[in-house]
Write a structure and sequence with these properties.
It is a single chain. This protein has a seven-stranded parallel sheet, sandwiched between helices. By secondary structure, the protein is an alpha/beta fold. Helix 1 crosses helix 9 and helix 3 runs parallel beside helix 5. 51% of the residues lie in helices and 12% in strands.
């Protein structure tokens, strides 16, 4: 039985990864801050006794270091760096502490765990790092989040090339809007209902990611034809136009 470690496993895409992999007979190490939700998830999974729960705050570097020790203690064939969050609104109005915490969770923890995992990875092992279609798409309503996702994409693409030499696959998963708790947790959004209607399902994102994992070819996976088209078209615009256009979308009602 292969083992996968999933961060941010208590909800959203992380939870969907867990339920899908458990059905495929993976043993899971479920990581998040909310221990109660992790145990609720664990109990709902097939072969629940095979799975483990680790409570960890990924904004705490010492907690990430402790979690990294897991890679040397047991064989883990797949690392899914899913944990992350966003905040909608004007940057000047946000808590700077929250914005810096976002950098720690979205980027620092992902980098630390990837580095530790690759010290022990063997041929056939893999990492899935969660980026976003916003890695291409300027989104002024969430500037720090967009910057973290651009970092993850650039970082992970280069790890993909390095990993090829050793038989280790690194996938950058770049979903667009997805129907999870993520949108509501990011802040007050006046057009949340519209955004949810335009969003894909977690299951469609995870199925595409895991299919690409089996093929082990694509460094970047973008679920959904509309997201792929958006990523292509936005690069054809002058950057100033793209930023202004997305600013107008934000002003129209993504945030209040």
């Amino acid at each position: 039985m292969k083992t996968a470690l999933i961060t941010g496993a208590s909800e959203g895409l992380g939870r969907c990864f867990a339920t899908t992999l458990a059905k495929q007979h993976w043993r899971l190490i479920l990581v998040a801050r909310n221990e109660a939700r992790l145990y609720e998830l664990k109990s709902s999974l097939p072969n629940s006794n095979a799975h483990n729960v680790i409570k960890a705050d990924l904004s705490d570097a010492s907690a990430v270091e402790n979690l990294s020790n897991t890679f040397g203690e047991q064989r883990i064939e797949l690392l899914i760096n899913n944990a992350g969050f966003s905040r909608f609104g004007q940057f000047k109005d946000q808590s700077l502490t929250d914005e810096l915490t976002m950098l720690k969770v979205n980027c620092q923890a992902l980098m630390m765990l990837s580095h530790a995992y690759l010290q022990h990875a063997q041929s056939g092992d893999a990492i899935i790092n969660l980026s976003s279609v916003t890695a291409w798409l300027p989104t002024p309503v969430q500037p720090t989040y967009v910057a973290t996702k651009a970092f993850i994409k650039a970082f992970s693409e280069n790890l993909w090339q390095q990993g090829r030499k050793h038989g280790v696959y690194v996938q950058t998963l770049c979903p667009g809007p997805t129907r999870t708790e993520f949108i509501n947790r990011a802040g007050n959004i006046s057009k949340a209902d519209l955004l949810n209607k335009l969003s894909g399902t977690p299951e469609s994102v995870i199925n595409l990611s895991l299919n690409a994992l089996q093929k082990r070819k694509a460094p970047v996976v973008v679920p959904g034809a509309s997201n792929k088209l958006t990523a292509i078209l936005i690069r054809m615009l002058p950057r100033k136009w793209a930023i202004v256009m997305m600013g107008l979308v934000s002003d129209y009602g993504l945030s209040e």
